[in-house]
Amino acid sequence: MANHKSAKKRIRQNEKRRIRNRYWRTSMRTSIRKVRAAVGTGNLDEARTNLQKAVRLIGKVRSKGIIHRNQASRRISRLTRFVNQAGNGQA
Question: What residue spans define the domains of the chain?
Answer without folding.
Answer: 23-87
